[in-house]
Each structure stands twice: as C-alpha cells, then as structure tokens.
Amino acid sequence: MNRSLSSLVLISCMTFFSCKPKPVPPPPPVPVNLQTVKAQEVLYYDKYPSTAQAINQVNIYPEVQGYITGIYFTEGAHVKKGQPLYEIDKRLFLAAYDQATANLKVAHGNTIQAQQDADRYIYLNKQKAVAEQLYDHAIITLENAKNSEKAAEEAVKTAKTNLTYSMIYAPFDGTIGFSQVKVGNMVTVGQTILNTISTDNPIAVDFLVNEKQLASFELLEKGKNNAPDSLFTILMPDNSLYPYPGKISIIDRAVDPQTGSIRIRLVFPNPNYAIRVGMSCVVRLHNMETTPQLLIPSKAIVEQMGEYFVFVDKDTLLAPPGEAGEKKDTATSSKVPTHVAMEKKVMLGQTIGANVIVKSGIDEGARIVIDGVQLLHDGSRITLGKKGVDTTSNNMQGTTIESKKKN
User: Is the model more confident about 154 or about 22?
Assistant: First the structure.
C-alpha cells in the first residue's frame, strides 16, 4: 500500500514539473541605424509671427455738412498729400462767402464814414465850437464801426474756411481704402466716415517676444552688439522672402502682465507697396550664436509628456570591427558583445528643416538612434539595421543648414 502511494506521488511530481512553462526568451535586438553627433556652425533664424501695421493711419471725416458731389481717387490706390479726394456741394458755402465778403465791404464803408465824422468833431472840439456830447458820440460811433468791420472780417474767414472744407484733400502720402459714401450721399460733421488712409512707405511690422528676451532686443535697438545689416527679415504670406531688411523702431512701454510678452515694432522700406496693413507675416531674426551647435534629425526625437528624449547607443562590451552586435560562439568565448539603447532627456532649440538643435542632454560624439525609435525603451538591445552601417557624420540633406558667415 505504501509502495503504491509513493509511486503515485512520484508520478504526480513528474507530471507537475513536466508541465511547468519554459522561460520566455528575451526579445531579439531591434534593427536600427545610428548616427554620430557632431558639432557644427549653422545659420538659422528665430521666427516670430507678426502683423503689418501703418506708421500713421487716420479716418477721414467731413468738416461741413452736405451732399457728396465728387469723388476724385481710385479706391485702394496710392494717393499723394494734398490730392483732392471728395467734394461736398459747395453752392451754399460759396453763397455764404460772397455774402460775408459783401458785408465786409459795407462795414469798411461805415468805418470810413465814422472816421471822417470823428475827425471833424475832434477839430471842432479843439476850437470849442461843438457840444461835448456830439464829440463823444462821434468817437463811440467810430469805435463801433471798427468793431463791426473786424466782425465782418471774421465772418469772411469762417465762410472761406467752410468753402475750403467742402473739398477734402489727402492729409499725407499713403494708401486709401474703399469709399464709405457715394456721390449723392448726405454726410454729417463728425459722424460720417468717408474713408481711411494709411501710410505705406515705410511700413511697420509688429510682433511679440517674451519678457526674458527684452534685454537682448534693447541691445539690438541701441546697436551695441555689432548686429549684421540683415538682422531682421520677413517671410511673406506665400513664404517668399521679402527683399528689404528692417530695423527696430519702437519697443513698447510695458509688458503685458497676463502673457508676459512685450510688443516690438520693426520698420521696413516698402517702395513697391508689397506689404499691406494687416498682412500676416513671419519675422526672422538672424541668430547671433557663434559657437558650434549639435544638430540631429528630428525623427530621432521621442516626445513623452511634453519632454523630449533620444536613444543613445551604449556598448556593453567592446568587440573587434565586424563583430559588434554579433553573438560569439560560447565554445570559444564567454563574452557576448551587443548594443543597448539608453534613453537620454534632451533640451531642444531651433528646428531647421528636417533637423533640430540640441541644447543639452547629449555630448558630441554620442551615437544616437535615428530610426526605429518607436520600438525602443530604455535598455533595449539593438543591432545595426537594414543598411548595416553606423553613420559617423551628420547627413543633413534637404535642410536649410549653411555655414555661418558674418555679415
């Protein structure tokens, strides 16, 4: 009985151990391509969204009331200072001017007559040949006549001003917009907007920068950092480069406390009126960095929760050329050379085409994974991929990298 029980236990144990799952083999190395990071001088631009603004812009209002009788410009065209724009029915103002002129002539005649009477009474008063009352009245009449003539002169000026205001002229050189009134419309003083005119050459471009950058822009404004002539350029809405460089005109008086930004105004020549008020463009600031930069392909970057990482190759064992990443025969060697991808957090700078500048996190000479990063995690085994090569120099085809030149 005991022997049968022992046999049963032995058979059960053998069955249990024979059914135990075998350990899962480690995943095979991920095929990748590597690139050795090198520092190099690069030319790039810091970019800021911006909006074109007029240096001077005004709404045109009528100074007198009446009906529009003439429009003398082409909408959307460039106009010169003093060019006629609108005419308001001038017949009433012309009639008022003629009446005021006639009244002035009458007042002038009354002054002459009063002066003659006053001269006579002055003479007679000296001879004691006239009553004192008549003399006083003559002097007062002369003063009243002179004051009436002055009032008539002012009435003529007012009538002439109103007549002048019936014709509206361009206040400065600029571009005029769509007319808000047509011939025959009634316009009211201080209420009816006739049109808007804005200066167009030169033209301003406004953009916002972080308050931390304010000090560097103040140096640029004062010209204390030997900035190149082409420091500020702009990209047009069609992504073409505007041919004229600009310069800082104004730095706003205050920082916006809600956004921590401050507005900066550049001024650009605009001889062909290619830049229009309100146009969206991109300001490019020629980067002044002179030290070599670490530039890597953007596809090597992995983003996690707003942070950026790259995978760096770290050899666990050194192997002779041609044997790295290959497993040796355990009969001849106990060492198994391989490659391991180590995750490194990096701080990124400017994006340049298909590449990006790395400010910190890796050093020059590091070998980074440039493809297959989606299959990796920290500590993954890797092997050279399809091409079977380690790119030892930065192959940056199709980017905007150039050798930096001082202008």
Answer: 154
Per the CB < 8 A criterion, the answer to whether 344 and 312 are in contact is yes
> Contact at 8 Å (CB) between 162 and 23?
no
The CATH number, out of the four listed (1.10.287, 1.10.1070, 1.25.40, 3.30.70), of the domain defined by the range 91-165: 1.10.287
C-alpha distance from residue 42 to each of 88, 340, 398 (Å):
62, 31, 14
For residue 314, report the phi and psi dihedrals to the nearest 5 degrees: -130, 110
| Helix extents (H) in 257-344 | none
Nearest to 338 by CA among 316, 321, 320: 316
**The domain made up of 45-86+168-286 is a member of CATH 2.40.30.170:** yes
The model carries a pTM of: 0.64
CATH (residue range 30-42+291-391): 2.40.420.20
Q: Return the amino acid letter for 67.
A: Y
Give CA–CA dist 133/20, Å, rounded. Answer: 145
* Beta bridge partners of residue 351, listed in sequence order: 356
Confidence check: pLDDT of 31 > 60: yes
Is the pLDDT at 14 greater than 90? The verdict is no
Query: What pLDDT, on the 0 to 100 scale, is given for residue 19?
Result: 56
| Residue 175 main-chain phi, psi, to 5 deg | -105, 130
Q: Are 293 and 357 in contact (CB under 8 A)?
A: yes
Distances (CA, A) of 53 to 202, 240, 255, 265, 294: 10, 19, 20, 9, 38
Q: Spell out the domain ranges in the chain.
A: 30-42+291-391, 45-86+168-286, 91-165
Provide the pairing of β-strand 307-315 with 339-352. Answer: antiparallel
Asked whether 336 and 323 are in contact (CB, 8 A), the reply is: no
